[in-house]
Amino acid sequence: MVDTVLGFARTLRHAGVPASPDRVEAMLQALGSLDVLDPGAVYWAGRLTLCSGPDDLDRYDAAFAVYFSGERPRAPRTAGQPEIQLAASAPLEEGPGDGGDEETEAPDLAVQASADEVLRHRDVAELTPAERAHLRRLFALLAPATPVRPSRRRRPNAQGAVHQARTVRRALRSGGEVTRLLHHRRQDRPRRVVLLVDVSGSMAPYADALLRFAHAAVRARPSSTEVFTIGTRLTRVTREMRLRDPDRALAASGSAIPDWSGGTRLGEVLKAFLDRWGQRGTARGAVVIVCSDGWERGGTELLGEQMARLRRLAHAVVWVNPHKGRSGYEPLTGGMQAALPSVDHFVSGHSMAAFEELTGVIQHA
Fold first, then answer.
1. Where along the chain do its domains lie?
2. Nearest to 135 by CA among 201, 85, 195, 91
3. Which pLDDT belongs to residue 97?
4. pLDDT tens digits for 38-53?
5. CA–CA gap between residue 195 and residue 290 (Å, rounded)
6. What is the mean pLDDT of the chain?
7. How do beta strands 345-347 and 193-198 pair?
8. Closest Cα partner for 314 from 192, 146, 152, 189?
9. Alpha-carbon distance 109 to 47, whole Å?
């Protein structure tokens, strides 16, 4: 499969489509979750990842037909498919000899290219069930980058400081003459990422999307990512999130969470996390992402104290509030005012574009 995709990417580049290595990697990750024997799945996985604009669509269709020696597959029209995808599939059913003029073809191409772009910027809470189903497929293409930290150990490298001991030992084997300087440098290691996802009633419209983002983060780096849910109590769902299929992972997490759509006691739950997990090493030097709207049922003094405690342990604290993406939002709730002094990055998490921005914040935290 890898050789086939690489050959197809070379064909696209010859046709004028800039199929860069990162886009090819995204297509391979998408095919890892799809049926590679289904031409429709292969077609849409490549089109969503390798094309960067409306000008690439015709070239992609022609290259796909030539490379795979078949007609362009028609989009499957299932009951759960969003209308925006059905509209995008209409031009694919037309052949080159249908006699359509350029004036009607250009808007169709614009709709094809902008369909996913419009959905990326839509608020998750305002999506229809069909659009939510399409958004889940976009989450399968999301690959959150992992932050790194410099390791204390040094390894042989072509660049870096001179490794005096290895250089001298090599010189002794050649009669004491230094013929080559050997170097070593510190290697980067993945930094731990901890996600605390609020599953209370006020966060119900966004809980599914936030957990799918957490699943994508665990899928990218299983050994250095931890996921907890917070509400009226603390629940560790890292083991459930390590399931490969996102739907199975969310179903297993839902069975393990006893306080789904309940109340919110952020201060008490955060104290429980720090006492049991954070103080022992889970939060030390990690990038901690708190996904919550800041509604606190109890007093805000405890939340402020625990956030300051978390800030002293963690490398960086990121707070994700879906309401921040709305125009005119101001953090006026008591919980947000108590937490913000200890937050390094305050971002929104209301749309697919916001989640993509969050991956960059985590990477460069």
1. 2-120, 151-190, 193-363
2. 85
3. 45
4. 888 888 898 999 988 8
5. 6
6. 83
7. unpaired
8. 192
9. 13
Helix axes 300-313, 266-273, angle to 10 degrees: 30
Q: Can you name the CATH fold of 193-363?
A: Rossmann fold (3.40.50)
* Whether 91 contacts 23, CB under 8 Å: no
Burial 185-203 (b: 16+ CB within 10 A, else e): eeeeeebbbbbbbbbbebb
**In one letter, which amino acid is 45?**
A
Identify the burial level of 35 via C-beta atoms within 10 angstroms of its C-beta, where 0-12 means exposed, 13-18 middle and 19 or more buried. exposed
Instruction: Give the model confidence (pLDDT) of 120-145 as tens digits.
Output: 888 888 888 888 888 888 887 787 87
CA neighbor of 125 nearest in space, from 354, 296, 347 = 354
Q: Where are the alpha helices (DSSP H) in the chain?
A: 2-15, 21-31, 39-50, 55-67, 83-89, 102-120, 129-139, 164-173, 204-220, 238-241, 246-256, 266-273, 300-313, 334-339, 352-363
* DSSP run (H or E) holding 162: strand 161-162
Placement of tokens 């709730």 in the chain: 333
CA distances from 304 to 126, 261, 313 (A): 32, 24, 15
pLDDT at 344: 96
- Mean pLDDT per 10-residue segment, the chain (365 residues): 86 85 88 84 89 85 78 45 36 43 46 62 87 84 82 82 87 84 85 95 92 93 94 94 92 92 90 93 95 88 95 96 90 92 94 91 89
pTM score, two decimals?
0.65
The answer to whether 317 and 311 are in contact (CB under 8 A) is yes
- What's the CA dihedral at 145, 136, 4, 7 to 10 degrees? -60
Closest by CA position to 213, among listed 201, 200, 230, 196: 196
3-state secondary structure of 186: strand
